From TrEMBL:
Residues 256-619 form the GH15-like domain. It comes from Acidovorax delafieldii 2AN. It holds the Pfam family TREH_N. GO terms for molecular function: hydrolase activity, hydrolyzing O-glycosyl compounds. Residues 1-10 have a biased composition (Basic and acidic residues). It comes from the Bacteria. Residues 11-26 have a biased composition (Low complexity). Residues 43-191 form the Trehalase-like N-terminal domain. One of its GO terms (biological process) is carbohydrate metabolic process. Keywords: Hydrolase. Residues 1-36 are annotated as: Disordered. Coiled coil: none annotated. This is Glycoside hydrolase 15-related.
């Protein structure tokens, strides 16, 4: 198998496709000019600290980073503005020949080693500082880059081409003896560095004779020396992530893949508020030239529930507690009996969608969208997702702040909304913009809200409330199984009285509405494999949507299929499909939203939390037990 989990080393994919990069990790491209930008690719590493993040390409170029938070201004935008016009932070090796890249094991610290045609070599270490200091989490708006010579006399060029206002504004630059300030109207960033400022500002190549450090972040002076600070923060950040990983309850098999997925999910938490973003990017198309370009840098309650659930399965409950703060504020913010499917990470309700015409888009495939119209949708599964996301807090005694009767009473308000919207048309979980139906998946989540509330009430010794919610759940369950069943096709359809198949129906077994051994569920799974699957990959639905029929598979649907196969006793087939999904991760073990069935290439926003959730869920479901070896 190719370079797999997050700690495996991966060679430079250059302009090759993501699939080629992951399947041929030892390929070394011909030497190219250091000034030739690589074709945008999703063969990227992610660094972050639960405040900001950055995406780093195989040649140690930062091609995407939004500041001062995940949904902010992309000060480095080369991922969606190809060529020389894109803004990036590159440490370019003259006469570049090849590279290899890996994560420091069990951490979010990324290392890239670049070698030139003469064998000279340097190594770049990238991270965003995260550790505990003064009894609190230290997670500044800060990217740290450390570069050191490994062999010979490598010649490097620093290209820090920063832009504001979505690429429209060049900053005003001021300098001190060891820092450069990039001054904008809304944001000013400071680069503290012990590299020669003359070379940094001019882009003049120079021989890398010793280690240099670059700390880019808030416009503040450091409290200690640049090199000492960078070294200390690297040590502390590595220690933080290693200790965090040590607390995970890992499966026996596929541990490296699970660790990389878990770290990626943790980095998707905006710790200040507890929001969890769906992905770090905007406008990476779901397939080539499709126009399916969306902004995913916000918190979908649906996606966040699956993230929390996956991390909970690894016994990582810190993210759950942070997310519960978020959910509590969402419930308190409920307006006119309606909860949106997504919010900004600062609880923003309005996320107006606009286009940035000055940006060409990923590989020139615009448009580039900012904001997401889905915030205006009515998606009735949202209420079930809130209850499901909060349910563990009522049963788990490990939490610092376990939920009790007061929290239950507030959660019941959400349950009442789930009852009100049950059986009413909505946009569905796929956010169809021009069609409303009574979606099976939405009704399913209303049932899940009532079912979990009944169980919470039982735990809290509230028998009357348990009876109340159980009655609602039983009535909904009977109706869903009747009205979503299509007797002609002998399948559960995507909507009440509907005809088409939809992968989201597989959640019936995952959330417990139906026994997976039920012949109706098995027949539905079999029909989906015939209609929605291209080999191991699964598309979302049969029917055309606002843009026609989807061309790529949707990764989380493939993982739902894996779960359904395992639940119905077809574990070997499930394992084969899981291995196929592991093989199409990028060289650093990350997944985007979609996979092209024919090429294995990644499409859609990146890294997609839904997809990384699937890696964890499949590994936990399919792994051999620990007691088989110990």
């Amino acid at each position: 198998m190719s370079a797999r989990a997050g700690d495996a080393r991966a060679s430079d994919p250059a302009a090759a496709s993501d699939a080629q990069a992951s399947m041929q990790p030892q390929t070394q491209p011909q030497a190219q000019s250091a000034r030739t930008p690589a074709v945008p690719s999703l063969a990227l590493g992610m660094i972050g600290n639960c405040t900001i993040s950055a995406l780093v390409d195989a040649r140690a170029g930062i091609v995407w980073s939004c500041m001062p938070r995940f949904d902010g201004d992309p000060v480095f935008n080369a991922l969606i503005q190809p060529g020389e016009q894109g803004s990036r932070f590159a440490l370019e090796l003259e006469d570049f020949a090849h590279s290899e890249q890996w994560y420091e094991p069990n951490t979010a610290v990324l290392r890239t080693r670049l070698t030139d045609t003469a064998g000279n070599c340097l190594e770049v270490t990238d991270f965003a500082p995260r550790f505990f200091s003064r009894s609190r989490a230290f997670r500044p708006v800060m990217l740290v880059r450390r570069v050191r010579p490994v062999r010979g006399a490598p010649r490097v060029r620093v290209r820090l081409n920063l832009r504001y206002d979505w690429g429209q504004t060049q900053p005003t630059i001021t300098r001190g003896s060891n820092h450069v300030r990039y001054v904008g109207s809304a944001l000013t960033l400071r680069l503290n560095t012990d590299a020669p400022l003359t070379y940094v500002l001019s882009g003049q190549p120079f021989v890398l004779a010793r280690e240099h450090n670059f700390l880019l972040g808030d416009d503040e002076s450091l409290q200690a020396g640049i090199g000492d600070t960078a070294r200390l923060w690297e040590q502390e950040t590595i220690a933080y992530w290693k200790l965090w990983n040590r607390s995970l309850a890992l499966p026996l098999q596929w541990q490296e893949a699970v660790i990389r997925a878990a770290i990626t999910l943790k980095m998707s938490l905006f710790e200040d508020t507890g929001a969890i973003v769906a992905a770090m990017t905007t406008s990476i198309p779901e397939s080539a030239h499709s126009g399916r370009n969306w902004d995913y840098r916000y918190c979908w309650l649906r996606d966040a529930f699956f993230v929390v659930r996956a991390l909970n399965s690894l016994s990582e409950v810190g993210t759950l507690e942070d997310y519960l703060r978020w959910l509590g504020n969402i419930v308190a913010e409920t307006r006119a009996g309606h909860i949106q499917p997504l919010y900004g990470i600062g609880l923003e309700h309005e996320l107006p969608e606009s286009i940035q015409p000055q940006l060409a888009g990923y590989r020139g495939m615009g448009p580039v969208r900012v904001g997401n119209q889905a915030a205006e949708h009515f998606q009735h599964d949202v209420y079930g997702n809130i209850v499901l996301g909060a349910a563990q807090a009522f049963h788990d005694r490990r939490l610092l702040h376990p939920a009790g009767l007061a929290q239950f009473e507030r959660l019941e308000q959400v349950g009442e909304l789930a009852v009100q919207v049950y059986g009413k048309p909505d946009a569905g979980m796929w956010e169809l913009r021009t069609r409303a139906r009574i979606h099976t998946s939405s009704a399913l989540m209303s049932w899940a809200a009532c079912d979990r509330l009944a169980k919470i009430a039982q735990t809290l010794q509230q028998p009357q409330r348990a009876h109340y919610w159980r009655q609602h759940a039983q009535a909904m369950q009977a109706e869903i199984l009747e009205r979503s069943w299509n007797s002609e096709r002998q399948v559960f359809a995507e909507s009440f009285g509907g005809h088409e198949l939809d992968a989201s129906v597989l959640l019936m077994a995952e959330v417990g509405l139906i026994n997976p051994a039920d012949p109706r569920f098995v027949r539905t799974l079999d029909a989906m494999e015939q209609s929605l699957c291209d080999g191991p990959y699964m598309r979302r639905y049969e029917a055309a949507d606002d843009f026609g029929k989807p061309e790529t598979s949707f990764n989380i649907c493939t993982f739902w299929r894996i779960d359904a196969l395992a639940r119905t006793g077809r574990r070997e087939q499930a394992r084969e499909i899981f291995e196929a999904m592991l093989a199409v991760r990028n060289p650093l073990g990350l997944l985007s939203e979609d996979t092209h069935a024919a090429t294995g290439e990644m499409w859609g926003n990146f890294p997609q939390t839904y997809s990384m959730v699937g890696v964890i869920n499949a590994a936990m479901r399919l792994s051999a037990p620990w007691d088989s070896v110990i």
